[in-house]
Structure formats: C-alpha cells, structure tokens
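User: Write out your own:

AI:
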Amino acid sequence: MSKTKITRRRFVGAAGAAAATVTLLPSGHLLGAKAPSNRVNVAQIGAGGKGHSDCRLSEQAGGRIVAVCDVDTRRGGGTFRAYAKAKKYKDFRRLFDEMDKDVDAVVVSTPDHMHARISLQAMAMGKGVYCQKPLTRTVAEARQMTEAAAKYKVATQMGNQGHSTGGNQATAEYVQAGAIGTVREVHVWTDRPVKWWPQGMGLPKEKMPVPPTLAWDLWLGVAPVRPYHKSYLPFVWRGWVGFGTGALGDIACHAMDSPFTVLGLTAPTSVKASCSPFNGVSFPNWSIIEYQFPAVDSRAAVKLVWYDGGKKPPRPLQLEADRRFGGNGVLYIGDKGAMLGGGGGSFCRLIPEKRMKTFPAPKRTLPRPGGHYADWIDACKGKMRNGRRVVPGSHFGYSGPMTEAVLLGNVALYYPGRELQWDPAKMAFANNSDANQYLKSEYRKGWTL
C-alpha cells in the first residue's frame, strides 16, 4: 500500500447516508413549521459568551431568533437586549412548553453537562438542533445523540466551525494524491488549559452567596446539587469533571476533526493515557492520550496521539529550524513525508515548505461545505444544492461517533498507563469493566428526559 486512499465516494459516504435520516421536505418548508417560509424560527439556549455569537451567525445564515434562554440575566443580558423582540426565558423546559409550535430549531450553547439533556428533548419534539462542541459530556450521551438524530430525522450540526472551512477537504486531496504516502501516525495538540482555565483542583470549601441574577439550580440542571462557588462559572466550568470535559473536550472536536475527516476514522480499538495527578473532580493539568484506530479498507491502522497542558509531540525533522511549531496543531506522518497544520479545520501543508512548490497541487475532487451555520439552516429548510439535499458536514451521524471516540480519552485518565480495549458494538471496555462506570452519569431527579 503506497498511499492512504481516500476516495471521493468514501469521503462523502457518511453525508450521503445521513441524508436518509434528515426529514425531506419541499424546498422552503421548515422542520416543524406549518407553512412555507424563508426563515427558520430559532430558539437560542445559552445566551452568554459563545451563545451571543451563535445568535448572530444563525441570524446571518437565515434564522430568525424568536426566543432566548439563559439562567443568568446578567450573563445573557447583552443577547437579551440585542434581540429585544425575542421571548426571554431562564428555564429551557418552560420555553419548550410555551413555544413548541413557534420554534423550528434550537441552538444549544450551554456548558457541556446540559448539551444532551436539551438537545435530546428538542430532537424528540422534531426540532433541528445546532449544538456546540463537544457534543456531549459523556460517551453514553454521544451515542444517544447519534441515535436520536437518526430516529427523529431532524437537521443537526455540531459547533466545530472549522469543519466547514474547506481545509479538511484540501488536506484530504493531498493525502489521497499520495503526497506523504501511507499515513500511520497523527499527532494533535493544544495549548489548553494553560492560561485559559485552572485544572487539577479540589472542590472549593469556601461558602459564597449565589449572585441575584443567577438561577443556580437551573444552571446545575442534570448535575448533582452542590453549593455555588465562583470557581465553577462562567467558562471555568470546563475544568470540572461534573460540568465540562477539560482541554480534550474543548479542542479535540476542532483539532481531531481533521484526521477523522481526512482519514475516515471511526471507533478506536484502544485508548491509553498518561497525565499529571487526577483527583476525579477536576481534570489533570496535562495529559497525553494515545488512540489506536483499526485498518479499514485501503487505510492503514492509525495511531493518534493527543497532547494538552503544554505537552507537544517531538518536533518533526522535516520542519525548518526557523518555522514555528505552534501552540495548537495537527501533524500527519506518512511513510513518504509529513503535513502540518494549526488545527481547527485549517489546511495542513507539506513540510518542509518547499515541497508545496515541488509536489503538483491535486485537483479539487471533494465537495466543499457552504458554511457551517448556513448548511444547518438550509438543512432545516430542506433545501437542495447541486441536485442534493443539504446535509451539514458535522451532523450528529458524524460528530456523535467522533465525540464518543474523543471522550474515551477522558475515561482513560482514571487508569493512567493502562491500555483500555474498546468494544463499540457493546459500548464497553473489553478488558476493564470497572472503567465502564465513567462512560455515563446519572441525571438528578427531575432532570431526566
């Protein structure tokens, strides 16, 4: 095998299969709507931070923001004011009860622990769902999201916007053309959490009053009850096991999206981690996680190594001495060369740079996305493009299994140095039944779907 062959048929196969799971409506009809329309009525759940830009980008893509929900009136205040005509809520359950017939689609921009709970209810109601990355907090939730999207046949998209820039497709065309030969190794790294949020902490002991603008019980949602503390939010929730998914969850659905797309990766056969001390409460300060992916068709078996907390792979020999080896990146290693990119869907360039001039640029053979939010909105409308129904590239049929594989790395943190063998059909570890407890979590009473 002289190269890793990624055919156009194989590359678009997942999207084609997913098209069968998306409700096929006449162009101009909305999922869940009663009449034709040129707009999609969108409910934004989680209005602060990323939620504000999600509102703006959904609107630019053809959505109409008809409801905004946030548990903190201060945090979500800017979005509430910007969309003054939209109905305002603190509790998404009340929003769903009152606006079922008025909402076509939902954008979920909450902390990780609430993604699945909100998205699963929205899909069961027949709403299109755009959910920020990582798709879920646990492996079991990722599997549920994949199955629910197929069952309810709604338009879905995960918020890893780099998937729709075209960089993955361009990288795949070079790999397909044999630019670096057979790929058997990929390295992915991030500068998180260093300087972004703290990790490696114990539970806070200090008692603090709940801010008057915050509905703390609603913010906790599915999570067990615990006293409020400012170290939990906003944004810093990423480092806490009960709320977030650490550096891996924050960035891997961006950075690992490249090898999953380019190489057609599916479920790994095993995962093994090394890390700084891990107390099970807050993610470790650094980790290195090794995934083994099986050979499929013409693709060789692939070892993928993840690094965070300041750790990086060895600097490739082909890289020029004066060239920056950045804080976030993806490195493909083939038997005939290497490609390096910045992660997040960016095009990976041949190294050394002179190879970009000597290797003939391959023809464009793979379809490019129309835009991350635009593709989702168009899918909600049932639109056609180039004779095909629009299917978002990071639909849950793709992003669900990818998130599932990514989050296995967080389970491996509980058993550093031990290889955990994964059985995706049984959704269990074949050689460590004890580890299966970390694949899911129990929702507290009153918060189950």
